C-alpha cells in the first residue's frame, strides 16, 4: 500500500517554478506513515497525463495530483482523470454557488470559464477549497484506488490537505504508524569518514540511518517508524547516543541547530562574549551569528576589515607585519583576532583572512587559503590554516571559512568545559 | 526526440530537500530547445530505479540522472544503471587519481569507500566533476539512447552541466532552435504594480513576458524562441527597452546583476568608495557587497555595531542621542553612517539599524521598523524609514534591510549621474 505524487504543469517542465508542492506532500505522507516511492511531473497534456495515470495506478493505491484545476483551457487534470477511468463529468450546483459567492466577496463577477471548475467525475466527493475557487476531488474510480486532486497554488493546497485530506486519510486508518526523524550534524569531517565510522548503523531496519552532505556539512538522518512520536524517539535515542560517542567533537548538533546557535549557547552558558574581524568573508560570519534572535546577549559586533587600511586603522594590525607576511597570513589573522577582542572588550575575538578568489592568489598563496585567528581572555592567541581548494569557488570558500571559524571556537569552548575535560 | 529527468534520492521522497536540481535542468533543457515531458523522483532503491529506467528509456532518448553518486552504500545510481543495461563496472584509474589528488589538496586521505566512485559502466565516458569527488558519466548503452549522470550536490551538478554536458549536447546538434531569456529585475516596487504597468506585454506570443517575485524582488522574464541567440536577442531588445522606460528607476538590472553588483559598478565608474555600519543585519550588507570578486576596489569595510557600546566606541554615535532616541532611530542611523564614513575615509557611508525580531520591539517601535542612513562626501547625511512588517520574519526583514540599503545608495548614485539628471 503506497501513495504516489503526480504534479501537473508545463511551468514545472519549463523550470519556471520550484516544485515545493512535492516537498510539502512528501513530508506530510512521511508524517502519516504512508509509504511513497515515486513522484512524477508531467505537462498540461492529456495523452501524457493518461500515460502517467496508467503507470501510477498500477503501482500505488493512493494517487495525489496537484495542478491543472484552474479555469483556463490548459487546466485539464480533472477531465483527463475522469476520461481515463471512463466516468462522465457532472456539473455540481454546490460548486457553482460557492464560486459565485467568492467572486461576489471579491467584488468580481464569475466568468463562463469558471463553470469548468464545477465539473467533477460522477461519484467523486468535493474536496473543498476554502481560500480559492478551484475545488479538488476525493474519488475511488475503482476498488483499492483513491484519487485526490489539488490546485497548484501552494497556500490553497496546504489548507485543503490539512482541512480535509488528512482527516479523510486518518479515517481510513492512516497515521497510526508515523515516521519520525532526527538529523544529526557534523563539521570538520568528510561524509565518507563519518559513514565508515558508523558503517554498522547504515543497514539497520528501524531506525534507519542515512548520510548526507552539503556545503561542508555532514548529516546523518536517523528515522524511526513507530505508533507514536514518543515510541519513535525511544527507538532513536540509543542509536543517537552511540553515534554521538563515535563521532566525538565532530558532532555539533541536531535538527535546527546551526554552528552559530551551538556556539551561541556555549557562550551564553559560560557568560562570555564574542567579537569578529572579517576580511574575505566580508560580514558573513557576523551574519551567521546574528541569524539567531537573542544573539546580542553574547555577540557584540565586529569589524569588516576588507581593505588593509581598516586592518591597521580599526584593528591595530602592524603595518610592517602586513607588508612582510601579507594580509593572508597567520600573524595577521592573530593580530586581527586580538585587535577586535581588545577594542570591543569581549571574551573572545575571532578572525578570518583568506583568498576567496577567483583572483588575488599568488604563487605561494593559492585561492582557498584561509587563516582563522582566535584570541581568548587569558591573552592566548591561536591561528589555524586551511586549504579549501580553488576549485570550490568563491561562494563556497567564504561559507566554509565562516563555518570553520565557528567550529574552531566551538571546539575551544567545549575543551574548556569541565564536563568534557574533567582535568581542567 | 526528448529528454527525461530522473532524480534519485530518498531525501526527496521524505521531503527533506526541495528538488532544485529538476528546476535547473528543466530550464537548461528549455534553453537548448530539447523537449522534456516527464520528471521522475525515485528513492535509493535499485528495484524501483530499474523500473523507472525501463519506463523512461521507452519514451525518451536522453536520460538525465541526478543523485546517488556518493561514496556511501546507499549511493546506487551508477551501478543500477549499469546493471539494467547488462554492462560490467570497470574501475577507472584516472578517477582514483583525481579523487586522491583532491583529497591531498584538502589535506585529507582518500578512504576505501571513495573507490566505489571510480567504478563506471564499461564503455561510458567520464563526465568530470571539477569541484567534487563524484564523477558522472555520458554513456550510450544502446543506439539512440544517451545517459548522463550527475551528483545531487547542486553546485557540482551545475558546473558539470555547463562545462561538459552542454558542449556535448551542442556537438550532437541540439541548441539549434533555442529559447533565450532575459530576466529583468526591479526593487522598491510590488509585483502587481509592475504587472499593471506592463500589462500590454504579458500576452505577447514571442517574446513572452512573465512576472515573478520573491523576497522583495520583482522580475520579468522576457523569453524569445529563435534560431540563434542573436535572433532571440533582436526580438527581446525592443521589448526590454520599452519595459525599462516604463519602470524607470525601479528597474535595477538584468540576469546575473545583483543590487550589490550594480552599486559596485556605479561606485567603480565614479571612482568612489563605500563603508558600512550594520546593526540588525549583523554583517549581511557587507557579505552581499563582497560576494562580488573585485569589490575591494570600492568597498573598504565596515563596523558590525550590534551592541550599543560598539556604536559609541567604534562609530562615535552620541550616547545621549542613543539614550534619548534609542538605537533604532533616524538620528542613530545617520550618526552610524557618518561615523563609519569618516573613520574609514570613504566617499560614502551606509548604515542599517532596525528591529528584526521576533523580540526587541516596543509599543512605538514594532518588529520590522528599520532605518537606513546614508552619508556622502559633501557632508550630507540622510536617513530613510521602513516598515517591513513583523509578519515577514527575522530572516526576510534582514534581507530586505540590506537590499533596501543598497537600493537607496543605487538611486542616489544614479541621481548624481549627468546622463540621468542632465541639470547636475
Automatic annotation (TrEMBL), chains A, B:
<dbReference type="InterPro" id="IPR008136">
    <property type="entry name" value="CinA_C"/>
</dbReference>
<dbReference type="InterPro" id="IPR041424">
    <property type="entry name" value="CinA_KH"/>
</dbReference>
<dbReference type="InterPro" id="IPR036425">
    <property type="entry name" value="MoaB/Mog-like_dom_sf"/>
</dbReference>
<dbReference type="InterPro" id="IPR050101">
    <property type="entry name" value="CinA"/>
</dbReference>
<comment type="similarity">
    <text>Belongs to the CinA family.</text>
</comment>
<dbReference type="InterPro" id="IPR036653">
    <property type="entry name" value="CinA-like_C"/>
</dbReference>
<dbReference type="Pfam" id="PF00994">
    <property type="entry name" value="MoCF_biosynth"/>
</dbReference>
<dbReference type="InterPro" id="IPR001453">
    <property type="entry name" value="MoaB/Mog_dom"/>
</dbReference>
<feature type="domain" description="MoaB/Mog">
    <location>
        <begin position="4"/>
        <end position="172"/>
    </location>
</feature>
<dbReference type="Pfam" id="PF18146">
    <property type="entry name" value="CinA_KH"/>
</dbReference>
<dbReference type="Pfam" id="PF02464">
    <property type="entry name" value="CinA"/>
</dbReference>
<protein>
    <recommendedName>
        <fullName>CinA-like protein</fullName>
    </recommendedName>
</protein>
<dbReference type="InterPro" id="IPR008135">
    <property type="entry name" value="Competence-induced_CinA"/>
</dbReference>
Amino acid at each position: 500500500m503506497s501513495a504516489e505524487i503526480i504534479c501537473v504543469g508545463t511551468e514545472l517542465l519549463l523550470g519556471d517554478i520550484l516544485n515545493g508542492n512535492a516537498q510539502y506532500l512528501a513530508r506530510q505522507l512521511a508524517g502519516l506513515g504512508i509509504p511513497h516511492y515515486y513522484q512524477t511531473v508531467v505537462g498540461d497534456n492529456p495523452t501524457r497525463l493518461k500515460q502517467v495515470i496508467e503507470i501510477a495506478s498500477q503501482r500505488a493505491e493512493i494517487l495525489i495530483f496537484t495542478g491543472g484545476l484552474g479555469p483556463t483551457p490548459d487546466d485539464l487534470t480533472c477531465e483527463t482523470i475522469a476520461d481515463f477511468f471512463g466516468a462522465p463529468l457532472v456539473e455540481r450546483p454546490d460548486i457553482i454557488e460557492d464560486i459565485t459567492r467568492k467572486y461576489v466577496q471579491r467584488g468580481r463577477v464569475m466568468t463562463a470559464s469558471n463553470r469548468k471548475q464545477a465539473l467533477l467525475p460522477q461519484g467523486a466527493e468535493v474536496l473543498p477549497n476554502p481560500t480559492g475557487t478551484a475545488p479538488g476531488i476525493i474519488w475511488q474510480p475503482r476498488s483499492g484506488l483513491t484519487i485526490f486532486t489539488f490546485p497548484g497554488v501552494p497556500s490553497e493546497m496546504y489548507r485543503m490537505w490539512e482541512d480535509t485530506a488528512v482527516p479523510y486519510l486518518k479515517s481510513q486508518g492512516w497515521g497510526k504508524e508515523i515516521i519520525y526523524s532526527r538529523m544529526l550534524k557534523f563539521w570538520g569531517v568528510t561524509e565518507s569518514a563519518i559513514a565508515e565510522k558508523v558503517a554498522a548503523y547504515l543497514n539497520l531496519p528501524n531506525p534507519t540511518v542515512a548520510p548526507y552532505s552539503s556545503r561542508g556539512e555532514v548529516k546523518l538522518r536517523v528515522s524511526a517508524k513507530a505508533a507514536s512520536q514518543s515510541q519513535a524517539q525511544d527507538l532513536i535515542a540509543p542509536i543517537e547516543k552511540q553515534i554521538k560517542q563515535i563521532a566525538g567533537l565532530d558532532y555539533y548538533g541536531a535538527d535546527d541547530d546551526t554552528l552559530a546557535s551551538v556556539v551561541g549557547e556555549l557562550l551564553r552558558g559560560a557568560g562570555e562574549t564574542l567579537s569578529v574581524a572579517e576580511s574575505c568573508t566580508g560580514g558573513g560570519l557576523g551574519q551567521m551569528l546574528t541569524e539567531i534572535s537573542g544573539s546580542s546577549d553574547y555577540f557584540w559586533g565586529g569589524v569588516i576589515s576588507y581593505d588593509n587600511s581598516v586592518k591597521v586603522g580599526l584593528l591595530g594590525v602592524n603595518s610592517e607585519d602586513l607588508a612582510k607576511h601579507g594580509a593572508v597570513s597567520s600573524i595577521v589573522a592573530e593580530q586581527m583576532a586580538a585587535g577586535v577582542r581588545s577594542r570591543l572588550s569581549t571574551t573572545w575575538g575571532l578572525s578570518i583572512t583568506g583568498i576567496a578568489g577567483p583572483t588575488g592568489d599568488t604563487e605561494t598563496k593559492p585561492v582557498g587559503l584561509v587563516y582563522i585567528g582566535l584570541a581568548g581572555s587569558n591573552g592566548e592567541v591561536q591561528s589555524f590554516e586551511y586549504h579549501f581548494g580553488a576549485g570550490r569557488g568563491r561562494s563556497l570558500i567564504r561559507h566554509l571559512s565562516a563555518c570553520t571559524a565557528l567550529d574552531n571556537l566551538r571546539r575551544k569552548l567545549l575543551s574548556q568545559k569541565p564536563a568534557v575535560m574533567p582535568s581542567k
